[in-house]
Design a protein that fits this description.
This protein is mainly β and 327 residues long. Helix content is 1%, strand content 74%. It has 1 helix and 19 strands. The strands form 2 sheets. The protein has a 17-stranded mixed sheet that branches.
C-alpha cells in the first residue's frame, strides 16, 4: 500500500489530506479476487479568534466482508445459531463527514460546542431469518442495502460565582435509517435516539459539596411494515452525590434513581454511603452499599401469545469495613 499525504499549517489554519492506495488479494474456498482500493481522508481546522474554532474531517473507509459474511457454508456461531453468507468476496464502503464548532471563554466561565456527524454505509448484506429444526438460521438474501446515520451533539456550560456553582447542559440527537428483511420482504426501518443531560456542581463551603446529574433518553423506532410496532420510550436517570468533609472526616452519600414510561420495567433506586477518618499515616472507615435501594430488577411481558416474568439481582446490600496505613 501507498499513503501519500500533503499538509499545510499556519497560526490559525491547518489542513492535511491523505490518499491511501492498497492492492488487496483475497482467497476463500477456491474464490480469488484482486482489488485496488483507494481510501482518502481530509482534516481541516480553523481558529477564528481566541474563543472560537472549527474543524472539518472526511473519511472514506473500505471494509472487506468477514468470513461469516463471505462464506456460503453454514457456520454455527453457537449451539443454536447458524449463519450462511453471500458466497462471494464482497466489501462495504463507509463515508463519514464530521464538522464541529468550539467556543471557550475562561474569563466569563463559558464554554460551548456543537458537533455534526454524517455516516453513509454502502453495500450492507441483508439476511433472511428463520427458525428451523431447533436452530435460528440467518441466511444471506442476495440483496444489499445502504444505511444513513446522522448525529448532532451539543454542550454548553457556565461557571457561576454563587458558591462555586457550575451548570452544564448537553444534548444529542441520532437518526438511523436502514433496511431489514422481514418475511423475505425488504422493509425500511427508522430509529430516533435523543438524549439530554443536566449537570450541576456546587461547592459553597470548604467542608460541603454536591453534584447532580440527570439524563433523559428518548427512543423511537418506526416502519411502514405492520409487522413492526412503532414504539416511543423515555428513560430517566438521576444521580445526586453529597460530600461532607468536616476536619479529618469524609462522608459521601451517593444516590441513583432510574425510571421510564415503559410499564414492563420496574423503577430502581440505589443509595451508597461511605464514611472514613483519614490522617497522614492511616485511614479507617466503612462503606455501606445499597442500604435503602432496590435489590431486584423486574421485567413483565404479558400479551396474547407470551406471559413472561424475569427478575435479576442488581446490587446486593453489603457493609465493608476497611483500614489502611502507610509505613
Amino acid at each position: 500500500w501507498l499513503a501519500p499525504s500533503v499538509s499545510y499549517k499556519s497560526q490559525s489554519f491547518s489542513i492535511m489530506a491523505t490518499g491511501r492506495t492498497s492492492l488487496v488479494n483475497r482467497r476463500l474456498h477456491g474464490m480469488k479476487r484482486w482489488q485496488t482500493v483507494f481510501q482518502p481522508t481530509l482534516m481541516m481546522e480553523y481558529k477564528l479568534n481566541g474563543y472560537v474554532s472549527t474543524n472539518l474531517n472526511y473519511v472514506n473507509a473500505w471494509s472487506p466482508f468477514a468470513l461469516s459474511q463471505s462464506s456460503d457454508l453454514p457456520l454455527y456461531t453457537d449451539y443454536m445459531s447458524l449463519t450462511q453468507g453471500v458466497g462471494a468476496l464482497m466489501n462495504s464502503r463507509n463515508q463519514m463527514v464530521m464538522h464541529s464548532w468550539r467556543y471557550s471563554n475562561p474569563v466569563r466561565g463559558l464554554t460551548g460546542s456543537v458537533d455534526f456527524t454524517y455516516n453513509h454505509t454502502i453495500g450492507i448484506p441483508l439476511y433472511n431469518s428463520s427458525y428451523a429444526n431447533g436452530f435460528y438460521v440467518r441466511k444471506a438474501s442476495g440483496e444489499e442495502s445502504d444505511a444513513d446515520n446522522y448525529i448532532i451533539n451539543g454542550r454548553i456550560s457556565r461557571a457561576l460565582g454563587w458558591g462555586r456553582l457550575s451548570i452544564a447542559l448537553s444534548g444529542s440527537i441520532n437518526w438511523y435509517d436502514y433496511d431489514l428483511m422481514l418475511s423475505d420482504i425488504r422493509t425500511p426501518i427508522k430509529q430516533r435516539h435523543s438524549t439530554i443531560w443536566l449537570e450541576l456542581s456546587w461547592h459553597p463551603l470548604p467542608w460541603l459539596s454536591a453534584e447532580e446529574k440527570s439524563v433523559v433518553i428518548f427512543n423511537r423506532h418506526s416502519s411502514s411494515s405492520s409487522a413492526i410496532e412503532n414504539i416511543s420510550l423515555r428513560y430517566f436517570r438521576h444521580q445526586l452525590n453529597i460530600f461532607l468533609m468536616p476536619g479529618k472526616w469524609q462522608i459521601e452519600c451517593m444516590n441513583e434513581y432510574y425510571h421510564s414510561n415503559d410499564n414492563t420495567i420496574s423503577n430502581n433506586y440505589f443509595c451508597d454511603i461511605k464514611a472514613s477518618y483519614r490522617t497522614k499515616t492511616y485511614e479507617v472507615g466503612v462503606t455501606c452499599t445499597n442500604i435503602f435501594g432496590t435489590t431486584d430488577y423486574e421485567h413483565h411481558i404479558v400479551n396474547s401469545f407470551t406471559r413472561a416474568f424475569t427478575m435479576n439481582i442488581l446490587r446486593p446490600r453489603s457493609v465493608l469495613c476497611f483500614f489502611s496505613f502507610s509505613i
